[in-house]
């Protein structure tokens, strides 16, 4: 069977190596790279790999050269990714150069293994070792191609052109030759699993990540989920599309340069080239894992034991992943085009600031005034000084609201873009925002969440805002019992029950400080009341939203009783 069509150097124009590079020489060259300057070293490495890819080497010499390059390529990929993974978007000049260099490095490594696969596939009488090396070349090439997509997801950028087509093509070849489930010998795996590495695993893990809506993920989360889903690829099934398939399916077209997508009654698939991706068993595995984590959380709460922050963050990430896979992806509300400017403040603190019309945030002093009668006169002056000192922490913050162009809207949210002067936006998926029409008078701030994000290297940004509430009350919260006990006051937003019939009374607080069953003081400046957090409505890396019950009296922590 002839090899499939892949993006390769023109084979009849490959150069004779000059000089002919041997593995020992390559190892010496790699050792002398200026590793203290990661970008300069990476640029030299990419040029060397591209030179090898355009030289004519016997296939087993090429295998030795590429395998020699893999460990240092992985080291450089991780270093370059580290410069971009948590960077502000759009990327600055240094970060943008690191991202472009990383893409070139991954692409050149993929190219080397595609050349190996091509040469081995042309052998007329391949031996068993040749077939093993061919499977390995497909697997490793798919790993590097997939990594290019993951790196793009990390900065919410589009996937490089042609990547998906090559992944489909390589997988189809393996499937046609019934080798997709045969084990691969990978001496330098990027993750450890108690199972064999296979071409099937390499293909399905990037499918599963893509179906988890990476443009909706928290920044950096795509990396974690990409490794997480590796354990569930065996439970993901790929079926041919036939005439009696139902709607509302995930489908991938093997003949197009497109990722898998959700198909509804109005968007039919190409029956001959498409496959249905069945993730029902994967969702069950995730749900079982999530239920175990939630049970652990409740057991710790029942025994008044704190749960580690890392465990809570992992739990919240899995909740978001479950919501993405279980969500109804068909659009429920009509979008309409619009052309207007929106003024938006990003983050919980900034939203609180503008909703309160810039009023000074002095929760300690406000609480003291409400409890003045509980203090002896001789102690009250000292308490005032302490309260002023604590509140001074909040005084030096500056909160900006900047204009964004609104290009479509619906009942549930709006889509915004920024085409110029987008630097220093400091905005992330999962961030809470306060927004209003720029010309609105009087000012009326709505509350929303950054639902999705897209960026490109030309400094443009697009984002989707999902509306949470048409109004909110700015308050301060402090934990008196449970998770968060011992911390100071934080800004929070109270979303009243009467906003809509469907909306539950809830409170928006900073992320991961409190948890279900935490008991808080809610400070409204002229009133103080107490609540117990009841259930987690929404969790992002920026904020948590809880329902709550109002308590009849101030809670007392066990530690407070012991001290008393």
Quickly list its features.
564 residues, alpha+beta, Thrombin, subunit H, 6-stranded antiparallel β-barrel
Descriptive account of the structure:
It is a single chain. With 564 residues, the chain is α+β, with helices and mostly antiparallel strands. Among the domains are: 11-192, no CATH class; 336-360 and 395-469, Beta Barrel (Thrombin, subunit H); 473-563, Thrombin, subunit H. It is 39% helix and 20% strand. The protein has 14 helices and 16 strands. The termini are far apart. 37% of the residues are buried.
What is the gyration radius calculated from CA atoms?
28 Å
Oligomer: single chain
Query: Which structural class do you get from the secondary structure elements?
Result: alpha+beta
Average pLDDT score? 88
**What percent of the residues sit in helical stretches (DSSP H or I)?**
25-40%
What characteristic shape results from the CA principal axes? elongated
Instruction: Report the sheet-strand fraction.
Output: 15-25%
Taking the sheet with the most strands, its summary is: 6 strands, antiparallel, barrel
| Count of individual beta strands | 16
The CA-CA distance between the termini, in Å, is 83 Å
Spatially, the strands of the biggest sheet line up as 5-6-7-10-9-8
Please count the helical segments.
14
Low-confidence stretches: 560-564
């Amino acid at each position: 069977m002839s090899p499939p069509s892949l993006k390769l150097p023109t084979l009849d124009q490959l150069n004779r190596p000059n000089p002919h590079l041997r593995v020992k020489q390559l190892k010496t060259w790699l050792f002398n790279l200026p590793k203290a300057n990661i970008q300069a070293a990476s640029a030299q490495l990419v040029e060397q790999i591209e030179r090898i890819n355009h030289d004519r080497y016997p296939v087993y010499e090429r295998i030795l050269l590429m395998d020699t390059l893999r460990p240092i390529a992985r080291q450089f990929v991780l270093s370059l990714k580290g410069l971009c993974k948590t960077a502000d978007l759009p990327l600055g000049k240094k970060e943008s150069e690191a991202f472009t260099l990383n893409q070139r490095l991954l692409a050149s490594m993929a190219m080397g293994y595609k050349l190996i696969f091509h040469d081995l596939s042309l052998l007329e009488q391949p031996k068993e070792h040749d077939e093993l090396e061919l499977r390995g070349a497909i697997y490793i090439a798919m790993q590097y191609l997939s990594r290019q997509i993951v790196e793009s997801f990390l900065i919410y950028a589009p996937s490089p052109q042609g990547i998906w087509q090559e992944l489909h093509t390589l997988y189809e070849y393996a499937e046609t030759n019934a080798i997709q489930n045969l084990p691969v010998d990978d001496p330098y795996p990027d993750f450890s699993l108690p199972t064999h590495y296979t071409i099937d695993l390499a293909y399905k893990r990037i499918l599963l990540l893509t179906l988890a809506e990476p443009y909706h993920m928290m920044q950096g989360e795509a990396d974690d989920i990409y490794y997480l889903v590796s354990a569930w690829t065996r439970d993901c099934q790929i079926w041919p599309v036939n005439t009696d398939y139902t709607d509302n399916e995930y489908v991938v077209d093997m003949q197009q340069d497109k990722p898998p997508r959700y198909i509804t009654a109005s968007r039919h698939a190409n029956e001959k080239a498409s496959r249905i991706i069945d993730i029902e068993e994967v969702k069950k595995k995730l749900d079982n894992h999530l239920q175990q984590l939630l049970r652990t959380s409740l057991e710790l709460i029942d025994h008044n034991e704190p749960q580690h922050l890392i465990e809570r963050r992992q739990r919240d990430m899995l909740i978001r992943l479950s919501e993405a896979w279980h969500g109804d992806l068909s659009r429920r509300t009509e979008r309409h085009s619009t052309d207007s400017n929106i003024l938006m403040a990003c983050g919980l603190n900034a939203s609180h600031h503008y909703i309160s019309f810039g009023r000074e945030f002095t929760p300690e002093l406000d609480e003291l005034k409400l409890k003045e009668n509980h203090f002896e006169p001789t102690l009250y002056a000292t308490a005032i000084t302490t309260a002023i000192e604590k509140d001074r922490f909040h005084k030096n913050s500056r909160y900006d609201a900047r204009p964004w162009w609104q290009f479509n809207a619906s009942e549930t949210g709006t889509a915004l873009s920024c085409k110029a002067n987008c630097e220093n936006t400091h905005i992330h998926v999962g961030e809470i925002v306060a927004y209003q029409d720029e010309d609105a008078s009087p000012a009326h701030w709505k509350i929303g969440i950054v639902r999705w994000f897209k960026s490109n290297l030309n400094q443009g940004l697009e984002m989707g805002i999902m509306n949470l509430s048409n109004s909110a009350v700015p308050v301060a919260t402090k934990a008196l019992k449970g998770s968060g006990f011992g911390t100071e006051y934080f800004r929070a937003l109270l979303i009243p029950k009467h906003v809509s019939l469907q909306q539950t009374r809830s409170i928006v607080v900073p992320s991961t400080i409190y948890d279900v069953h935490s008991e808080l003081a809610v400070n409204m400046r002229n009133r103080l009341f107490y609540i117990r957090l009841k259930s987690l409505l929404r969790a992002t890396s920026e904020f948590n939203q809880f329902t709550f019950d109002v308590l009849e009296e101030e809670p007392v922590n066990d530690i407070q009783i012991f001290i008393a």
